[in-house]
UniProtKB/TrEMBL annotation:
Name recorded for this polypeptide: O-methyltransferase
CDD domains xrefs: AdoMet_MTases
Superkingdom of origin organism: Bacteria
GO molecular function, one term: O-methyltransferase activity
PANTHER family (UniProt xref): CAFFEOYL-COA O-METHYLTRANSFERASE 3-RELATED, O-METHYLTRANSFERASE-RELATED
EC numbers for this chain: 2.1.1.-
Keyword match S-adenosyl-L-methionine: yes
BP term (GO), one: methylation
Organism: Nosocomiicoccus massiliensis
Length: 202
């Protein structure tokens, strides 16, 4: 067992939303890794986040977990895939949190919001990380926090021998975003949990 595997095991908690998790696994719906999820929820709890904006709802898995941290939390979440959006609505309703969710069906590149938030969670198309960051971070409060998932691309971020042009293009875009954050936000943390978690204070 490697150190990484040992820590991942310790950071993996009992699944609170087993039905949603199993659906994701059985239908190959990408969801946040369990150890990264633990870090995200701990961050929300420690910093007492109350108004969360999520880019990329999928089937509502991460949204359910973020809402479970505290009953005072509200979630605005954007999803462009209608089928996923419908499933997320069902899951939020089934687990009794729909009244705390503002689900938006639309392309996050085009959606316009006027509300303010204290946490921005970016977990959508990875090649658009910088676009989403620049578009939505101005909506954060002065003590706002941005969290970005999948900054390691399952190891492809350091792979120099990719053969697919699409994978090379995606890798380069995520690299550019990571480097942009590194150069402009000295307090940002790049964490080797899950598929890589990036935490930025505004």
């Amino acid at each position: 067992m490697t150190i990484e595997e040992y820590l991942k095991q310790l950071n993996t908690k009992t699944e609170s939303f087993q039905d949603v998790y199993e659906y994701a696994v059985n239908n190959r719906v990408p969801i946040i890794d369990s150890d990264a999820l633990t870090v995200l929820k701990q961050l929300i709890q420690l910093t007492r986040r109350k108004k969360i904006l999520e880019i990329g709802t999928a089937i509502g898995y991460s949204g359910l977990h973020m809402l479970s941290v505290n009953k005072d939390i509200t979630l605005t979440t954007i999803e462009k895939d209608e089928a996923s959006y419908d499933i997320s609505k069902e899951n939020f309703l089934k687990h009794g949190v729909s009244e705390r969710v503002n689900g938006i069906l639309g392309d996050a590149k085009e959606v316009e919001l006027e509300d303010t938030f204290d946490l921005l969670f970016i977990d959508a198309s990875k090649g658009n990380n910088k676009l989403f960051f620049e578009k939505y971070s101005p909506l954060l409060t002065d003590d706002g926090i941005i969290v970005v998932d999948n900054i390691l691309l399952r190891g492809q971020i350091v792979e120099e021998n990719l053969h697919s042009k699409n994978k090379i293009k995606l890798r380069d875009k995520v690299r550019q975003f990571n480097e942009y954050i590194y150069e402009n936000y000295p307090s940002a943390s790049f964490l080797n949990v899950g598929d890589g978690l990036l935490i930025i204070s505004k």
